[in-house]
Amino acid sequence: MASNAIPKFGSFKPKAKPESKQDTKPDSRSSGRSNHHKANERALPDDGRTRRRGHDDSHGRRISSLDSQHAEPLWEPERKRQKLTDAPRAAELDEFEESTQFVVDRRGDAKNAIYGSLHRYNVPAYHRTGYGNVIGGLSSKIDREASDGKEVTLVSSLKPRVRSNSSRVLSSKYGKDSETKLRFIAAQSDQADDRAGSDFIEITRAKRREHDYNGADDQGGSVDYRSIDGKAKADEAPIDDDLEVVASDDNASTDLELRTRQESAVLSKKAKANLKSLEAWLALAEHQSKLVRPGIDVSSLTSSERRTLADLKLSIFNEASKHISPGTAGRESLLSAMIDEGRLVWDNAKLASKWKEALVEQNSSVLLWAKYLNFVQDSQSNFRYETCKHAYVECLNILHRACESANDASRAEINRVQIYVLLRFTAFVRGAGYDELAIAIWQALIEMHFFAPSSLSSAGASERLSSLEEFWESEVARVGEENSLGWAKYHDSGEGTPRESQPAVKDKTIPCNSLQKFADEENTLGSAFLLPASTYDDDAVTDPFRCVMFSDIREVIEPLSNTNIQSWSIVESFFHFMRLPAISLQSIHLDAYEWQRDSHLATPPGDNSSFAAARQPERFLLPCRREMTAILFEDGFDALKSDLEQQPMKDTQLRFLDKVLGSLGSVSTLNTTNGELLAEYYIAFKASLMPTETAKAAKRILKQRPSSMRLYNAYALAEARNETAKALEIWSAALSLQRRIKSDQHHDLIYLWHSRFICQVKSGDERGALQQLLDTANGNDGRIESEGQSDHASEFSTRQLRLSRRIEEDSDRMHLLGRSEHAVLCADLLAWISYLTTENNTDRPLHIYSKYSAKFARDNGSIATEQLHQCKVRLIQTHLERRRPHKPSVLQQELEDSLKLFPDNSVLLDLHARITAQDRIRALVREEKATLSTSALSVVQWAFKIGEEIRRSAHETSGSTSNTVRAAFSNALLRNDSTVGHSPALWLAWSCYEFASAGTNMQRARSVFLDGLRYLPWMKSWAIQGMKLFGNGTLSQSEMKQVCELLHERGLRVRVDVEKLL
Q1: Are the C-beta atoms of residues 334 and 278 closer than 8 Å to each other?
Q2: How far is it, in rounded angstroms, from Cα 574 to Cα 439?
Q3: Quick one: pLDDT band at residue 932, thresholds 50, 70, 90?
Q4: Any idea which of 241-250, 393-402, 422-431 has the lowest mean pLDDT?
Q5: What are residue 134's DSSP bridge partners?
Q6: pLDDT at 955 > cutoff 70
Q7: The pTM is what?
Q8: How far apart are CA 1008 and CA 1026, in angstroms?
């Protein structure tokens, strides 16, 4: 083939060549001008080139098909037009010849002539330097309006530009609400007067449609689709005659942008005037969101706008870091803010390096370490179990060193963070599959802080650890195991009962010949509760992780060996780890309420990390409330009970918890008020999970503390679950002992009064409950001998007034003494007395609740205030269940006021959802009026929001569908700025929902499972459950193998050997 051969494609058609090179030989000037003309022709925009090529091609085709004499007249007008434009074009080419923007290549590339255009990959791109400037072109700027993806148009920056209608990218007006704004039209007074004086008001009816369709025109505002002019457009005018369209006011938007820029200038001056003020820099950075989109909330920004905003804030923080140097006040918060914004811009490698730099500089920062733990544990691509574990241990060591050098005021705060990190660490270890290691850590800590030998109380940390190691390696029974005597007993006597052999959980006779079988076997082993095995057990030989040596837990125990940590914090965190309810304590240092709101620690009721048996949930709600004695006996242990029902070895876990609670209750150092609380907790545990053993345990405890009114009340509440009459006898017997108890225990009588009263109200005997309360307070048996009915009514009012005053005095006294739960029970009794004596009117009781709520809030009693609001829920529920008249708007307003104070309280959220269940419109309005951005919602609020969508979607007329439910899940878990995106509870709820509504199409559930693998990298159970459920064909064999390899790559524990199948 010749070198000049041309590919036979229509798009590569060459231009016509002259017949002979010797025909005409133009001079150099005309040749250069001609070449330049061709080059300029190629530089024209695409549309220009298209028209010229179309003309040439058409012309060629016409010449070949028609006679020349017929073709000449046909194209004569175009030729005349071509001649007219030759002169201006020549002048234009001369101007380009002298241009400094580009150089005319007179030689060029021969291929350009062949293919008719430049080679796009040989043309260098213009490089921007910011604000539309171009490198090398000092007097030129890029014209955005005329440029597109293929061409860049330059304009002179020296000449004044005619600004077009296009707007700026970030601060444009495209972010304004596009919906039509309406306003009411005030009715004219004369018309109103005329109508008011009329005998009747005429109502205009629409005319009937005639056969000539004239009636359609009379119905103003209707759209007629039968017009000969085509489809008519809908009129934007409102249907309501009392409304008119408000024209968009560009001046208002301009004024808003001007005010925003003026405020930015003021903040910038403040920051430059106070270079070491962190508050000034943070205020300037926070103001950048108003510059990007004035008047728009940050939560409505798109992903690209969020990244742009993050870049702006990072530039400000980098400038601030030059002045707020290491060692300066506010440096820690500045680094935290920089990393928070950089998370949206940097990749994982750069983010990890920034974290390391920050932690090297601020190695004792509690704030940075807590955020770093989230970064390490939630990393989607760089997660490794050992790396994350090392980060947790290093954090505990740093906190330990900070606690030793801190003063008393800051030491308590550091201890709280230590307990939180410990709880997060053990939950992480359990999620990765190392259950025995997590249980062993808690056993060692309980032994250290509750059963330590008294002879070692003044010993050093190393000596205490050596003695504990000796006890651990001796293989005697530990806390929670059968025949456990404790560390102190072993240290004093050197004797102890050997540990019992743990049952084998793996059946070696079952072959694992498929990945589906592997998933089934691994799921069975992972869901079983297992205590650490002894070194003599068979499982310890086949699975080394079943046996936990002291060297495996020493690095965790040593930073927590100091005696400054309060023992009750260890107990409370252990209860939360085991999914037990919190103890109803008033101590400030306990953070069980905050743990319920933590996205990594929150768990829904009945969660066993399994969605195999999922069903359509009617309401999804995470428990988050202040525990009280009455609530503890009602449903405090329901979550654990639901969890145990799914356990293959539930008896082992139940006996372990029973032994731990029994051992803690028998410690002599707890024979105090806290010990009484723990004994009450133990009775509630028995009543809920071991009802046949409740009476025996309660009598044994009462024999040890025969004068405790609180324990008598606990025993009665336990009996009230099954037999109300026996419970009333216990209350009466306990109240008859009030003259023989010590004076400092009289305050606990309120527990007996309140519990018996509520028990009778629940059984329906409201009048008898009030009468018994009056009799008990006045010291008689309730029989009133009167001659007339009027005397009986008068006596009843007098006694009721005397009772109310006594309870008011007791409430004030208990509040002053710091016994907030006693004060709450007194206030609740006052509200119930008012409710029953005013013919079940809710106005007066609600006023009492508001009065005492304000009183508790003034004295910083947030716990007491929240408990009182929970008591108010009980009264409202009773009123609604018995179908008594009420005003829904009043009750809704009461609950909304309570939710403003405690937006995460699940008791308030649940009742509010039930009241507003049938009022979809008000619910939408309430959500629209909410000012809290979705990025700031806690995991409890997200669970409530999602649960409401699930409940509404079950009704066709509610306006919610499965798509709105999926949108709620997606907003909660998949948004870049979400704070709950790594919550196992919400991911499990989503998978349950998709699995329950999938039917035969499992693709949506499969997508959720794959997303969960990225967002929950430490959750082994998530991967195993997905393999078990989707291994029947939804996941291919290659995908199943990839999941198995992912488990090994991340370092998660796999009990079943699967290497032969990979």
Answers
A1: yes
A2: 10
A3: very low
A4: 241-250
A5: 128, 137
A6: yes
A7: 0.75
A8: 10
The two structure tokens encoding residue 609: 């990390």
Sheet (strand 154-156) strand order: 128-130, 133-134, 137-142, 154-156
Q: Which two tokens stand for residue 335?
A: 């680094």
Phi, psi of 154 (to 5 degrees): -105, 145
The region of weakest confidence among 538-547, 616-625, 770-779, 816-825 is: 616-625
- What residues contact residue 660 under an 8 Å CB cut-off, 6+ apart? 446, 479, 480, 574
Sign of CA dihedral 1034, 1039, 1041, 1045: negative
Token pair 């005018």: residue: 237
| pLDDT at residue 880, as a whole number | 93
CB 742 within 8 A of CB 707: yes
What digits encode the pLDDT tens for the residues 1011-1058?
Answer: 999 999 999 999 999 998 888 778 888 899 999 999 999 999 998 887
| φ, ψ for residue 498, nearest 5 deg | -60, 150
Average pLDDT over residues 911-922: 75
Q: Sorting pLDDT into bands at 50, 70 and 90, what band is 175?
A: very low
Q: Mention every residue, 6+ apart, whose C-beta is less than 8 A from residue 767.
A: 836
Torsion-angle region of 92 (φ positive above 0: left; ψ -120 to 50: alpha; else: beta):
alpha
Q: How far are the Cα atoms of 630, 758, 874 from residue 833, in angstroms, in the given order?
A: 18, 11, 14
> Cα angle at 416 between 411 and 417, to 5 degrees?
95
Residue 343 burial (10 A CB sphere; 0-12, 13-18, 19+): middle
Banded pLDDT at 80 (limits 50, 70, 90): very low
Query: Which residues have CB under 8 Å from 798's CB, separation 6+?
Result: none
Distance, in Å, from the CA atom of 572 to the CA atom of 975, rounded to the nearest integer, reads: 33
Using CA atoms, how far residue 818 sits from 747, 814, 1047, in Å, is 12, 6, 52
More confident residue, 1038 or 235: 1038
- How crowded is residue 901: how many other Cβ atoms within 10 Å of its Cβ? 14
Please list the alpha-helical segments (H only) found in 22-45: 28-42
Mean per-residue pLDDT of the chain: 78
Q: Which amino acid is at 60?
A: G
* Secondary structure letter of residue 16 according to DSSP: P
Characterise 457 by phi-psi region: left (phi > 0), alpha (psi -120 to 50), beta (else): alpha
Give the residue extent of every domain in the chain: 28-122, 130-157, 253-362, 386-521+528-581, 777-903
- Tell me the C-alpha distance between 292 and 32, whole Å: 51
Nearest to 952 by CA among 920, 927, 980: 920
Query: What is the crossing angle of helices 766-778 and 789-816, to 10°?
Result: 70
Helix axes 862-881, 843-858, angle to 10 degrees: 170
Burial class (CB in 10 A: 0-12, 13-18, 19+), 747: middle
| Phi and psi angles of residue 182, each rounded to the nearest 5 degrees, phi first | -120, 155
Alpha helices in 882-977 (DSSP H): 888-901, 906-915, 920-929, 939-953, 962-973
Q: Over the stretch 245-259, which tens digit does the pLDDT of each residue have?
A: 555 555 556 777 788
Matching residue, tokens 């990594």 = 600
- DSSP-based three-state secondary structure for 145: coil
Nearest 5°: the CA angle 438, 444, 445 is 90
Q: Tell me the C-alpha distance between 490 and 468, whole Å.
A: 10
Torsion of CA 546, 551, 553, 558, to 10 degrees: 170
Three-state secondary structure call for residue 972: helix
Lowest mean pLDDT, pick from 26-30, 457-461, 951-955, 979-983:
26-30
- For 625, half-sphere exposure in the C-beta direction (CA atoms, 13 angstrom radius) is 23
Cα–Cα dist 92/263, whole Å: 49
Phi first, then psi, for residue 155 (nearest 5°) are: -130, 160
Distance, CA of 527 to CA of 613 (rounded, Å): 14
How is residue 602 written in tokens?
């929150």
Name the one residue in this structure whose structure tokens are 């996941």. Answer: 1035
CA-to-CA distance for 72 and 783, rounded, in angstroms?
127
